[in-house]
């Protein structure tokens, strides 16, 4: 079997899903692989009766996941909303993996997405030779999920143009996809539902119509509540990514992760952690996902151009790149932050010097 960079959730956590299924005695909605109780346990983590450890996929308020899971057991779609880096895609993938055993029924929303991406398209060679037929039709991931009674995913729904978005209205309300060329339709099997994600930070996206919003139950995924919680998320994901990418470096010290997360939270929030000093915020989002990327990049630098231990110079390269998206405005803001905050903090001189060499 060929090694892939990243396995699907149902493959990577196959052992955990099997253990949960073996001990799941709670009622399951039609065509669900696990009960809502087991889906929640899979997302939030814990220890099963037989001692199997279920790793947490979402670190935060469990009530948020409870609402999401309960929604998917109804006839309403689930819309996960949040700023970049709040684990919308991550949560949607793991919900689909736990509920349907398949997280690959995915439509990636883009400005160029057409109705075909949500409904179906045609094999034009077959279409020209035989005319419209089931054999010539290429079902979308959503149509395949309807036919199998599984969960489909639509990423970045608000990046899809408004007229294409409205294709989902009939699909979500009537649970059918009409095929007028064949004078027929595809009806959804029990268990079918849709998880969509939307970014409420980026500008220039397409607002959802009120009619489409009514077809979804909206769940807002918040940023991590505390520094400790965000550092734990970063540490967990970086450790997993480091193993997957086979980066020959030591696991990152929590101290370095906490320094990075502190910088992100302060610049993101516009004030220091003690609340005493107001700060200017850069144009960059400085999300948890970007913090994970910075630490992973630092591990790669430490492994291949250092001694294998993550240090301030390894963090600095990715940190400056994450903060300074606008070379004019962001650079000035970050330089000011370095001089007034980082330079004066006890034990942070190494990070200050490393950033000053680059910025």
Lateral arrangement of strands in the main beta sheet = 4-7-10-3-11
CATH-defined superfamily of the largest domain: P-loop containing nucleotide triphosphate hydrolases
Average of the residue pLDDT scores: 93
The oligomeric state is single chain
Low-confidence stretches: none
Estimated radius of gyration? 23 Å
Query: What fraction, in percent, of the residue positions are helical?
Result: 40-55%
Strand content: 5-15%
- In total, the number of strands is 11
Q: Which fold name corresponds to the CATH topology of the largest domain?
A: Rossmann fold
User: How many distinct helices?
Assistant: 17
The CATH architecture of the largest domain is: 3-Layer(aba) Sandwich
Q: Which CATH class of the largest domain is shown?
A: Alpha Beta
- The SSE order reads HHHEEHEHEHEHEHEHHEEEHEHHHHHH
Explained architecture:
The protein has helices at residues 9-12, 14-22, 36-44, 62-72, 88-100, 115-118, 124-130, 141-148, 162-165, 167-174, 210-213, 227-245, 254-269, 288-305, 312-323, 329-342, 349-358, and strands at 46-47, 53-54, 77-82, 106-108, 120-122, 137-139, 151-155, 176-179, 184-187, 193-199, 216-220. The radius of gyration is 23 Å and the shape is globular. The strands form 4 sheets. A 5-stranded parallel sheet has the order 4-7-10-3-11. The protein has a two-stranded antiparallel ribbon with strand order 1-2. By secondary structure, it is α/β, with parallel strands linked by helices. The mean pLDDT is 93. The protein has 17 helices and 11 strands. The protein folds into 2 domains: 9-220, P-loop containing nucleotide triphosphate hydrolases (Rossmann fold), CATH 3.40.50; 227-358.
